[in-house]
Each structure stands twice: as C-alpha cells, then as structure tokens.
Amino acid sequence: MVRVTTVDDVTVIVTESLSKRFPRVTALDRLSVDVGPGVTGLVGANGAGKSTLIKILLGLSPATEGRAEVLGLDVATKGAAIRERVGYMPEHDCLPPDVSATEFVVHMARMSGLPPTAARERTADTLRHVGLYEERYRPIGGYSTGMKQRVKLAQALVHDPQLVFLDEPTNGLDPVGRDEMLGLIRRIYTDFGISVLVTSHLLGELERTCDHVVVVDGGKLLRSSSTTDFTQTTTTLAIEVTDTDEHPDGTRAVRDALHARGVTVQDGSGLPGAGHILLLTAQGEETYDLVRDVIADLGLGLVRMEQRRHHISEVFTNDSDGEENNQQPKEAVGHGS
C-alpha cells in the first residue's frame, strides 16, 4: 500500500494493488508501497504513471483494479469530499490570463468552501508565503512562468489542506526559479505541517527536497525508500587533481602512479568533470594516506577527495528488468552531481 502521513501519524493515503489500464497502455500496474510522513517524492520518467496516480487519488479517474483511500475516504465514492481537504497543483498552465492572482486565489478558496472574508484573508497570507504579495493585483497573463507556478501553488494551499499534490511544480523554471520553488515546497511541511506528494522526472530535485522517494517506471514500483537510504555513501573514492607544468595531465600521472602501487583505478565516465575524475575502492584510512602521498610526490594540487554517494538514478540502471529501464533518457533520470 501507499501511505502518506501527517506529523501526528494519521494515515492520509492508502492504496492497495492499484492498477489503471487504457486500451493500449497500462498506466499503473499493481502499485504497492508504504511511505511515512514528510515530503514524499513520486519520481519517474514522463509517462511513468505519476499524474495518473494523482488523478485516481483525487477521485477524478477510476482505477481499473485495486483500491485507494485518502484521509480515510474511498476515492471511488468520496472524490468531492477528498478534494475539499486536499490541495492540487496541476502540471500544465491552466490559469485565466485576465484576472489578478488575488481574484483567482480568492475564487479557488471560495470553491473550497471558505466564506468571503476568510477567503480574502487566506489569499493574502498565501500569496505572501509564495512570494507574490507585491504582484498580487497584476493580471496573471503578464506573469512570468515562475510567477504562474507560484499562483498554482498558492491556490493549492489557500484552503489550508491536510495534504497537497504537486504535479511537476518546477516545470519550465530556470535554475534559480527551481531552487526557490523547492524551498517553498519544503516549507509547506516544515512550517505548516502539511504533507506533500510531489512528482518530478528530475531526480536531483527530489534528493534535495524529499524525506522519502517512491520510484515508478511504466506504472510499476521500482523502489520506495527514505532519501537517506537512496543516497548512502559508497566505498568508492573520487579524486580530482590539478595539472602542473611538469605534469600537464595530472589525472593520468596519478592514475599511473596508483597503478604502479597495485591500485585499480577507473575514470569517472558519466560524472560531471569526466576525464578529470578518478575512482577507486577505499580500503580504509590507508587508501587515503596512499592517495595523499602520491599526489604530494607528484607536486599536484588536490581539488577533491571524497566518497561517492548513491543516487536515485541508479534504481533505473540497476533494475533487474534492466534493458528497458537503461534506455530512460538522461534528462529524466539525471541527478546532476
């Protein structure tokens, strides 16, 4: 089952063997996972079944098989009641261009059942939280992509939900905008205690933001673990050195010197800075001492020497079904570090 909980450990979402089939594709295939409280990431390449799952949980699309509950309510029969208590930020741009952020968010608050005065007060507070307070009276059509994403986030939060679903909230944002959005998402839980289920195909975002990550591919579960488990340190040591006049290729000089001492060294193909990074297995403190001595003897500068960490992307490349998952596009499973 999938279980997302609030800080007081009340079950928010339960699904059991959830499947969704269309005539030519299976969007979800008996998805079963257990997740704890906090910010939960739902990750997979485009078409993995993330948006389909959210639609089912909101009662907007019926499951083919299995069952699901949100806040103790059956999604098959209580969709409207669920939507009153859950916030939803859709992936695509669906905002009216001719109204202001204030007008739109107040309208959404009223649609969620808030009385007029409370809707206006909550709208002001929420737009301040997402960083749009100074721009709240401008027509949405004149907003940048980042500002529009913040409006969508605000309308998902304005009625003070117990849980929010955020579908690809960083789509279309530049690096600065992504960082700001990820910070806002984290604060939803840390500042307000609202549980979050956030989807993304950019794994590095979830590594930085989420407490727990659920990885799906082709509608099937690949893994569900805490982010800490996903990113545990390995025994692989990464080394990067500078070049000198005496050793214009410092990387090769270190590799040759370590080979001469019986140490197996690989290059860091596929890593940032590939061609300048060496990888070897750390056998203990003596490995660090050996590397330090070799670099010092060669008169090179040490840029970094650190243990590598696992990344969520390895779930795709290491999956036993292998071939299909190994063909995932790099941008869909890249971690950027």
UniProtKB/TrEMBL annotation:
Source domain of life: Bacteria
MF term (GO), any: ATP hydrolysis activity
Stored Gene3D superfamilies: P-loop containing nucleotide triphosphate hydrolases
Entries under InterPro entries matching the protein: AAA+_ATPase, ABC_transporter-like_ATP-bd, P-loop_NTPase
Residue ranges with Polar residues bias: 315-329
Pfam families given in the database record: ABC_tran
The keyword Transcription appears for this protein: no
Start and end residues of each ABC transporter domain: 13-243
Coiled coil stretches, renumbered: none
Keywords of this entry: ATP-binding, Nucleotide-binding, Transport
Disordered, as annotated region: 314-337
Family in the record: Belongs to the ABC transporter superfamily.
PANTHER family according to UniProt: ABC TRANSPORTER, ATP-BINDING PROTEIN
Protein name per Swiss-Prot or TrEMBL: ABC-2 type transport system ATP-binding protein
Organism ancestry: Bacteria, Bacillati, Actinomycetota, Actinomycetes, Kitasatosporales
